[in-house]
Write a structure and sequence with these properties.
The chain has 125 residues and is mainly α. The chain has one domain. Helices cover 74% and strands 0% of the residues. The protein contains 5 helices and no strands. The longest helix is centred in the middle third of the chain and has 26 residues. The chain is elongated, with a radius of gyration of 15 Å. The relative contact order is 0.21.
């Protein structure tokens, strides 16, 4: 998986997961965790993140294909909500919170070492 594919996957998953996490935790809107960028990600967290990212990518692909033929906005919104629910479940099943997943996804753009660790984990899956 190339960096561009990883970046696209994390961006899409962050955009899809952030609203669910945001409104579930804070009705005023999403607030990224303070100091999350400064905390190093341990190996277990990176492994869980990579597992979740792989699952999220599969879910995104499945629903992207389903959405291609949909012209009804309501049906498209229903599919997007179902995809979001499945992604949240996949992230939580990996052992990390949606908030931690989103924080790591955001950090990957600024942290080459983290990005490299995640790429290695994804390649070994």
């Amino acid at each position: 998986m190339t960096f561009k594919q990883i970046a696209t996957t994390t961006l899409l998953s962050t955009l899809l997961l952030a609203p669910a996490a945001a409104f579930a935790q804070d009705p005023q809107g999403y607030q990224p965790p303070q100091g999350a960028a400064a905390q190093p990600a341990d190996d277990a967290t990176v492994t869980s993140f990579a597992e979740a990212m792989g699952e999220v990518q599969v879910i995104q692909q499945k629903f992207s294909e389903q959405l291609q033929g949909v012209e009804d906005n309501e049906k498209a919104r229903e599919l997007q909500m179902k995809a979001q629910d499945e992604m949240v479940s996949a992230v939580e099943a990996s052992g990390i919170s949606v908030q931690d997943y989103n924080a790591l996804a955001s950090r990957m753009d600024q942290d080459p070492a983290l990005r490299e660790k995640v790429e290695k984990k994804l390649q070994s899956q």
